[in-house]
Write a structure and sequence with these properties.
The chain contains 1 helix and 8 strands, in the order βββαβββββ. It is mainly β and 206 residues long. It has one domain: Porin (Beta Barrel), CATH 2.40.160. The chain has an 8-stranded antiparallel barrel. It comes from Ravibacter arvi.
Length: 206
């Protein structure tokens, strides 16, 4: 009777960078990446799905002086903040990523979930809530280097429900779209990282 290894639980850690789009940075700018890292625990199922609990922390920052329009450069606002987030997410693996002779030891995947984030931008006028629900979603790639070790890379975005990650928002939309924050366009932050994971194996009967 062949030996089968169960591989339900996996833990890991990663490093990378955070970025942001909002009222001060209307599009992703490479110069705005700031250091970030994460810790996670993953529960793997046989049907291609994995469930993950993650803690993510890192910085985001941006400045009007780096914008490509004269109004923002003249406005000259800037901010920086530490973001701390916890989330629960589901991953779907496109390939047969299991510890088996017939399985592949790498796979692309997509992920999505829900989380909660804390932030406190500097400067801080203190007139808004400094926490928000977030919806993380993204894509990644996993590769099992040598049992029980694996590596991965992931790019994910966090849709937030706040307009004040950058300490700049507004309750009204004014004709000049750069003159005030647009509450209809919530801020988004991003994480790009590489990770190392360790899978806990146990011998089970087939």
């Amino acid at each position: 009777m062949p030996t089968v290894f169960g591989q339900k639980w996996e833990v890991g850690a990663g490093v990378g960078g955070m970025n942001y789009t909002g009222d001060i940075a209307r599009k992703l700018q490479i110069r705005n990446f700031r250091p970030a890292g994460n810790l996670f625990a993953r529960y793997n199922l046989k049907n291609g799905f994995s469930f993950r609990a993650e803690f993510l922390g890192g910085g985001i920052a941006a400045a009007d002086r780096n914008a490509d329009n004269a109004f923002q450069q003249q406005r000259d606002l800037s901010f920086k903040t530490l973001v701390l987030e916890g989330n629960l997410a589901t991953e779907y693996n496109f390939l047969d990523y299991r510890d088996s002779r017939k399985a592949l030891n790498w796979t692309p995947y997509v992920m999505g979930g829900i989380g909660y984030a804390l932030f406190r931008p500097k400067p801080d006028n203190g007139s808004y809530k400094t926490s928000t629900l977030v919806i993380p979603f993204g894509v990644g790639l996993k590769y099992q280097v040598k049992r029980p070790w694996g590596v991965g890379v992931e790019f994910s975005a966090r849709k937030t429900f706040t307009d004040y990650l950058d300490n700049f928002g507004g309750k009204e939309v004014v004709p000049d779209k750069f003159g005030n924050g647009n509450p209809a366009l919530k801020d988004i932050y991003y994480f790009l990282g590489v990770n190392v994971s360790y899978t806990f194996y146990k011998i089970v009967c087939p």
